[in-house]
Write a structure and sequence with these properties.
Elements (H helix, E strand, L loop, with lengths): L2 E6 L4 H10 L4 E7 L19 E5 L5 H11 L3 E4 L6 H6 L2 H23 L3 H6 L1 E7 L22 H20 L3 E6 L1 E3 L8 H10 L4 E4 L5 E6 H14 L5 E4 L4 E3 H15 L12 E4 L14 H7 L7 H14 L1 H10 L10
Parallel strand pairs: 1-2, 1-4, 2-3, 4-5, 5-6, 6-10, 7-9, 8-12
Antiparallel strand pairs: 9-11
Helix pairs in contact: 1-8, 2-4, 4-6, 7-9, 7-11, 9-11
The structure holds nicotinamide-adenine-dinucleotide.
The site of nicotinamide-adenine-dinucleotide has 30 residues, from helix 1, helix 4, strand 5 and strand 7.
Length: 350
């Protein structure tokens, strides 16, 4: 018999990639998403053909609706990807971040806890809730790497709201023994990422021969993980992760932002040479830095390697080529976003 799994935020970038991974496994997948600006039916249209898939439009803050969905589908597993996710937008307006990432998650977990408490013993003992958090909660890491016991030193309203959610979820574990796992992953890239984020923005602007705005000197360091590696890690954590634990997830590809942008330019120089014979590198423009921009993220992934036996498989050179090719092959996907919801403008400048 198929196990019911609820995915919140499954119409976004990582959530839709996760559903594509599990749809052929032994699950009945219910995808619940508010369909904010960051999501699109186009991210999930291909899933409608599966008989073990159901989409419901709803908001994690809507307790009544969540309660009904829980009663109807009686899930064994729940994964929450739903969040406001763009740091620059959190600078422009922190309140949607507090509303969804703090209040929304609190309402969601409270409803799920109430559902779980009333389950029969058999289901109750097998139930798991996974919260998808971020390595940004550790803040900027000058030296070494953050492990799961490192302190929160958040800089943006986004990372602060994610850290608040982590604390609430951990409190539910400690207080009610509610069976949670928290994952903290580094920067993702790959198919279906909304064009406001660094990598898709640089690919799409290059293809359109627009400026490539690089914040500050572009020397900020991020650890990049291909989205398929991230969703694999979540899949393995669902099977082998221990209740009450936090797991860092990373790609072990630490790069400066400017080297990422240059890499994209050199791939496009080969894939789609410009008519004026110039390199895409000539489109790079250094612009005013983001306020409170974290200099370096770095996660220690020893725990997931040891306890879950997961490690990243896709190196950056391979993953970024696949990503550039996806955006070249899926122009209608991003062109409709540029037309309808985000046209590439600078956000979060103050
Ligand atoms: N993208 C990254 O690099 C990265 C890295 C680490 C962790 N994360 C975390 O992974 C999760 C998914 O990130 P993503 O990049 O796929 O984000 P995304 O912005 O692409 O998708 C978020 C999804 O959540 C939905 N959503 C937003 N508010 C909602 C609400 N109130 N109720 C229901 N649905 C709502 C949106 O409609 C969208 O489909 C987030 O929790 C994020 O913090 C992302």
């Amino acid at each position: 018999m198929k196990k019911n799994i609820l995915i919140f935020g499954g119409a976004g970038f990582i959530g839709s990639n996760y559903i594509r991974k599990v749809i052929n496994k032994n699950f009945f997948v219910v995808n619940i998403d508010a369909l904010t600006y960051a999501s699109s039916n186009k991210n999930i249209n291909d899933l409608n053909k599966f008989r073990n898939y159901k989409f419901i439009r709803s908001n994690i803050i809507d307790s009544v609706s969540i309660r009904k969905i829980l009663r109807l589908y009686k899930p064994l597993y729940i994964i929450n990807f739903a969040a406001e996710t763009h740091v620059d937008r959190s600078i422009d307006n922190p309140m949607p971040f507090v509303r969804t990432n703090v209040f929304g998650v609190s309402h969601l977990i409270n409803e799920i806890k109430n559902y779980w408490i009333n389950l029969g013993l058999n289901l109750k003992n097998k139930f798991k809730f996974i919260q998808i958090s971020t390595d940004e909660v550790y803040g900027s890491i000058d030296k070494g790497s953050a492990n799961e016991r490192s302190k929160y030193i958040t800089s943006s309203p986004y990372s602060a709201s994610k850290a608040a959610a982590d604390e609430i979820i951990m409190a539910f574990y400690k207080t009610y023994k509610f069976p949670i796992i928290i994952t903290r992953c580094s920067n993702n890239y790959g198919p279906y990422q909304f064009p406001e984020k660094l990598i898709p923005l640089m690919i799409i602007n290059s293809i359109q021969e627009k400026d490539l705005p690089v914040y500050g000197k572009g020397n900020q360091i991020r650890d990049w993980i291909y989205v398929e590696d991230h969703v694999d890690a979540i899949y393995e954590i669902l099977k082998f992760g221990k209740i009450g634990e936090i797991y860092n997830i990373g790609g072990e590809n630490q790069l400066t932002n400017i080297s990422v942008v240059k890499k994209i330019c050199t791939i496009l120089d080969k894939r789609k040479p410009r008519k004026n014979n110039k390199s895409y590198l000539s489109l790079i423009k250094y612009v005013k830095d983001r306020p409170a921009h974290d200099q370096r993220y770095s996660v220690n992934i020893n725990k997931i390697r040891k306890e879950v036996k997961w490690k990243p498989k896709i190196n950056f050179n391979h993953g970024i080529e696949k990503t550039v090719d996806w955006y070249l092959a899926n122009k209608s996907w991003w062109k409709s976003i540029l037309k309808n919801s985000y046209s590439g403008e600078r956000l979060g400048k103050l």
